[in-house]
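Researcher: Let's continue the batch. This sequence belongs to Pyrrolo-quinoline quinone repeat domain-containing protein, and it's 696 residues. Same format as the previous ones, please.
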Amino acid sequence: MRRAILVLACALAACGGGAFEPQYPERQEPHMSGVMRELAQTPPRTADPVIVAVTTSPPGLLCWDLRAGRERWRVETDARSTPIVAGEHVVTTEADAVVVRRLADGGRVLALDEEDLHLVGADGEAGTLVVALARGEGETPLGYVVGVRDGGVAWSHELSLSVGSPAVAGALVLVPWGHQRLSILDATTGVERLRLRMEHGVLGHAMHDGGRVMVGQHRLYPVTAELFEDERAQRRAGIEPRGRPLPGQPPLLPDAYEPRMNAESARNRVRLAWSLADGEPASFADDALYFVFYRLVFGLASGEDEVRWVHDREHDVVGADAVPGGIVVLTDDGRISLLGARDGRPRLEASLGVPVRAADVRADGLAVPDASTTAPAAPLREQLHQIASLDDVRIGAGRAFAIRFLARDPSADVTAQLVALCADRTDTSQARTAACEQVAQRAQGEQHVLAALRGGASYLEQRPAPPIAALARAAGTMRLRQALPYLVTHLEDPATPVDELPGLFEGLAALGDPRALPPIERFLRLYHADATDARMIDALAAAARAILALAPARLDSVRGLADDPLAPAPVRERLAHALVPPTPEPAPAAATPPPRQPAPEPPPEPAADLPEAITTEMTDAVMAPVQARLRRCLERAEGDPLPSARIALMIDEQGAIQTVSVTPPELQPCVEPLVRPRTFPRTRRGREVVVHTVRR
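Model: Same format as before. Here are the structure tokens for Pyrrolo-quinoline quinone repeat domain-containing protein:
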């Protein structure tokens, strides 16, 4: 098979195809005008709404017709990757090859059986299919594109750079490659008709969505002549949802330059889903963005940092696709649900009847009924609290996300709910941490804070200590002086966990009640001479800061403890540091009228060709050559690989990287040598801080 493909590729190149050659001219006329007219006149795509799923028992593939509500076909095979529905075909990695099957009946059409080929993407219309593959396992695998017509390979091209996810639009094939290039080929012959380049964005995906032809990765751009002729248009054009922190931080579109995800990959279970509305300019249908996090489905506003609804599907979601009016989700127990965009209530439900590992859900053209199959949705606050209270350590980050929005309700009842979540010491996930952070910021619900503080640890009753740090900070925020006796009791109680003490002292300082001074001073004198535990040393430093906040005149008293030769050196150092007052901001100079002078010449405008600031797309393009090696930094000699790393970079006016800060810090030695030599484009803003996230 490989020899036949290579002979065909050589024949096409000899005939003047020249596809993907480095010297190919860009934006060449009259080809550009002709290709753009063809794209504008491409009829809207129509397709049957289907699901193709990887089944577990028995192992194989199953096709479900969403409109008819029945199984279309099932075949037994060892499917290794998430399938791709591509027009009249299904493409997947199976045990022995990348396999193309007919969507109509599951019959095998052909196999690309070379060992070093890995499926990247595929698309199709009518009888045309294009498959993008990666050759090799290296840092930047070579791209390989195959055109299939009438059940056989019609053409193929080997690329010198990586290839993204292609699209078929009528008689044309769009292939993103090299992160910034777009080649538009003749679908029949594979001859390149037009070469385009994106200077201010990443090109990873091409797509034919309804009547639109779009490209992009972090943003979606309509393919127009203006987009590729005017760099300023690239900065203005395109759509993307509002940026916000999300657990796992899934991208708008999967990384198109990575091989198709394994059927067991977490990327199947942590993803975004969206659809485009009809009409111009392009926008997200229903102003909706759907966030899938394992068993949770959040309905978000695409333009605002807002949660509209959230559902617990009880089983992990392994496939999802949005349509105007809602989202279709498939869970690993084979259950299909169509959830409405407005309230998340189910509109349609069905079951495949078998468990599944992964799926490609293509719901385009599926009508969403107005009526729901369930009772009215609960208020959003109840939905968020239900999710926050789930007992599943895998979804701790998703529960923390729900807690962040639950806390937007300022009512006392929500304070009570947050206190209860914070008090659950059996919960070791991010959810408890998030609840405690929110408790510390509450302004209402004093009675619930006092009630929690009245309780104490009891070994006999098997009752743990309340979350003293969060409650003390909340009392300080509320200026709740009635809490002082309870806080002092917990301070003097040996059962109070030592890691709660810094927060307790911060809360006492914020209360501003001088009655707290004597017990704080007693604590500091009692423990300063024999503290060796790092947590206790942190507590002593917090106690010193609290004393100085409540009574600055006690400076000499704290200094005496900092100079005590009997205290361990780390304690003396931390106490001395607490004595250093924060640097005050300089007072503004007295305003004096300046002497009259001639009006100065207006400053020169910034160079028109410099972008305003470094964008996410620019950062991704700079990091693309080392991205694969950065991912390898997430692997550890012992234990599971880390899911992600956050790289904060200080960029100077010339685009050079001045500082590199990596979270978690253990990855700094691996990451910094890779990113430090990279150079960013100059911008009008000059010095900037950018953040780049590396994910598995």
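Researcher: Any comment?
Model: The longest helix spans residues 534-550.
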